[in-house]
Amino acid sequence: MPSTQAGPPEIAEPPGHRMLVQRSDDEIAAQPLDDASVAHAGTSVRFPAPWPRGRGTWEVAPDASLAVFAGVHAVRAVEPSGATRGKVRHGCWCGACRETHESYDEYADRQNHRYPESGSVGFSTDGGLVWAHVRGPSSERAS
């Protein structure tokens, strides 16, 4: 991705896998690599992002089949097609806010939500489990 539109590329090394990943406001690009850091031809994957990159954290599954975004108001698992595989809403990371937001659009223009504290998200080594650090209360179980 052009550097004017995205963060720096990173090499992620979940056990047994290596990939080059990069996040823009609109998407994550993931490119699996071999042991010599050579890209596997035709294996690039892109995940649409539910909110801009400055509004939370993210992680790509070890097999690059899923990306999980931990945002200001929710954790969302997204497939490359853009389909949401799961979503859990939680308390807003903006410390003074007591709302349980339904969507990013509710606070996109609020100055006090520009640089919120942030949660974190990660995958188990086999990609079968997602851990997320969120602000309570959680409004629902993962769907």
Main attributes?
4-stranded antiparallel sheet, 143 residues, mainly beta
How would you portray this structure in words?
The protein is 0% helix and 33% strand. The chain is mainly β and 143 residues long. The protein has one domain (10-133). The strands form three sheets. A four-stranded antiparallel β-sheet has the order 1-2-3-4, with no helix packed on it. Strand 7 and strand 8 form a beta hairpin. The model has no long low-confidence stretch (mean pLDDT 80).
Radius of gyration: 15 Å
- The low-confidence runs, each spanning 5 or more residues with pLDDT under 50, are none
User: Which range does the strand content fall in?
Assistant: 25-35%
Number of strands: 10
Rounded mean pLDDT is 80
Shape: globular
How many helices?
Answer: 0
The percentage helix is under 10%
Number of domains: 1
Distance from N terminus to C terminus (CA atoms, Å) equals 32 Å
Report the order of strands and helices.
EEEEEEEEEE
Report on the biggest sheet: 4 strands, antiparallel
Structural class: mainly beta
In order across it, which strands form the biggest sheet? 1-2-3-4
